[in-house]
Amino acid sequence: MIQSTSTKTFQYDAKRRVTVDRAGLFLGFLLLLTLPLMVQSNGYILQVFTHALLLASLALAWNLLGVSGSISLGHAAFFGVGAYGSALLSLEQGLSPWLTIPIAGLFATGLGLMVGLICLRLRGAYFALATLAFVEIPRVITGNWDALTRGSLGLVGISGLPTLRMGDWHVDFGSSITASYYLVFVYSLVLLGLVTFVFRSNMGLALQAIREEEIAAEAVGIHVNRYRLSSLLMSAFFTGISGACYAHLVRYIEPGLVYGLHFSAIPMIFAICGGRFTILGPAVAALVLYPVDQFIFHPLLPAGHEFLYGAVLILTVLFMPNGFWWRLRNA
Amino acid sequence: MEVAERIVILLQLKSLNKTFNNFCALSNIDFSVSEGEIVGLVGPNGAGKTTLFNLICGRYRPSSGNILFKGIDITDLKPHAICRLGISRTFQSSRPFPRMSTLDNVLVGHIFGKGFSLHTRPEDREMARELLEIVGIAHKAETLADQLTLSEQRRLDLARALATRPKLLLLDEVAAGFSPILVKQAIQLINRVRERGVSLLIIDHFLNLSLKVSDRLLALDHGEKIAEGPPHMVMRNRDVLQAYLGLRHQDEEED
Question: In angstroms, rounded to a whole number, what is the distance separating the alpha carbons of residues A324 and B81?
């Protein structure tokens, strides 16, 4: 859907790519690891970065599908199902979030299967529009099934992030923002590792080929629909997990929030700005743009601070259609 | 006594029809390609040559008729499955994976052409590089495919198709618009492909290739088979001349 219009030619420089990726990974890891020390566990700053990390995981998960060339505008469906799934299971059944979070991921995968069977025959803008419309289904159900979901009132008093016990030693991830921060950090790292594995494996090669030229891809033996569906299911699963983490982190959810356009648009914006064809790009964009939004634009423009995302998206599409991380790696 | 040569039929088309909304693109095509053979598919614009390719490769499904490959009915198979059985193709306007390196383009063909493995082994890359050498663009291995010239993209298309290890290779206008020197290189390349034990079906609208390399020609016009046989015979066939040059008017005057 979004094609490079830039006429500047880029050399394929494997060395530069590796250098940029390693530098970014190393710096990012170090900064994020030591952030609680640097800011002396300043609650507000850590809260913003916890959220940024969660959004980074969302962008990474979105890009598992995005790399195959499909642009989804409906990931809030998976996010919301994940959030409600985990929140309800822990509220109603009293299950530990360690259990409910992955189960919620499976719920989202189930929804992903439905989306896949119905929408994956579509391409480009048609696929994007279909996913945009699809969000309404779980949103309306959640908003009206009062007996189960308490409808538009939302859910309050959701249990916090769980406690990890190993013998006598234990960490309560819900007890302090620093602990929550590290849990989300570890989750994002694990997801990053997984995305790296998928992108570098031959499955990643197949997804790229499908994105670049689908007809040629099937002509050289790639089972196009199977790969597109698998990438959608993986993407839905991790988006569901991120939604579940969000529910236990914020401890309050309502349909308009978790199924809102915000959670559909934001991973797409981060992925496109950072670079859909890169592993790190979407995560880097989330970790840069969200804090900039919260620390700089939010105080300046409390009502319209999100214009930042629109502006950055437009500038990216105009001047670096492949994203800034891609540009850094290939300049 | 020794049997001179056992002819094994590789591809068989049985009364193949294809219509698009009442437009008959191909009607009643019966044809076969034997193992080791090079067949040229000729005919004027709109004769149905590329449609025939799309039917064989599974992009289109025939309206009626059957396609057999190595005795297996592949009429209803999907393109990826047909590729895995051993039919590979190039495209009329080449379709590289533009934002992937030339080497990766070929690698995709090598890895998925016959199945799936989770990781690329060094020998897979070696194979891909070898194919780039065969088609003469090894020095561009690390270039993004959309930066290749038109002739290099055609070579890349060919290398990627060969990477799937086909038994039958379908070439769609490989040499269209080529200069005489490039055509010569293309002929050498095709002979090298044949030496690897691959049969070829070559669409060649301008006849700059197939007359020199084909064992046999199949001529189509308006979706019908009008001639079949050795190149020099087919080229003298009245219907073929008529299709290409429009001699009907002249004939009528002679009567």
Answer: 38
Alpha-carbon A102 to chain mean position: 16
Q: Name the closest residue on chain A to residue B124, using Cα atoms.
A: A202
Residue type, A54: L
Q: Are strands B23-34 and B9-20 parallel, antiparallel or unpaired?
A: antiparallel
Q: Looking at the predicted structure, is the pLDDT value of residue A77 above 90?
A: yes
Q: Quick check: helix, strand or coil at residue A166?
A: strand
- The pair of three-digit structure tokens given for residue A100, joined into one six-digit string: 């409910």
A209 touches chain B (CB under 8 A): yes
Query: Which residue has tokens 């990012």?
Result: A28
pLDDT at B22 over 60: yes
Q: Rounded to 5, what percent of chain B is helix, strand, coil?
A: 40, 25, 35
> And the tokens for A283?
């995560």
**Cα–Cα distances in angstroms (integers) from residue A173 to residues A248, B61, B74, in the given order:** 10, 57, 57
Q: Identify all chain B residues contacting A223, using CB atoms and an 8 Å cutoff.
A: 78, 80
Please give the model's pTM, rounded to 2 decimal places.
0.90
Read off the DSSP letter of residue B10: E
**SS3 at position A271:** helix
**Entry field: residues in chain A:** 331
What tens digit of pLDDT does each residue of A11-33 get?
567 788 888 889 999 999 999 99
- What pLDDT is stored for residue B250 in this prediction? 53
Q: Got the DSSP string for A159-204?
A: --S-EEEETTEEEETTT-HHHHHHHHHHHHHHHHHHHHHHHHSHHH
Q: Write down the ipTM of this complex.
A: 0.88
Choose, out of B74, B80, B82, B89, the residue to mutate when testing the contact with A (most A CBs < 10 Å): B80
Mean pLDDT of B82-95: 93
Yes or no: say if B167 and B10 are a contact pair by the CB < 8 Å rule.
yes
**Beta carbons of B217 and B187 less than 8 angstroms apart:** no
Around Cβ B228, how many Cβ atoms within 10 Å?
17
Interface of B with A in 152-181 (CB under 8 A): 160-161, 163-164
Give the Å distances, CA to CA, from A264 to A207, A239, A243: 22, 10, 12
Per DSSP, the residues of A265-328 read HHHHHHHHHH-TTSSSHHHHHHHHHHHHIIIIIHHH-TTTTTHHHHHHHHHHHHH-TT-HHHHH
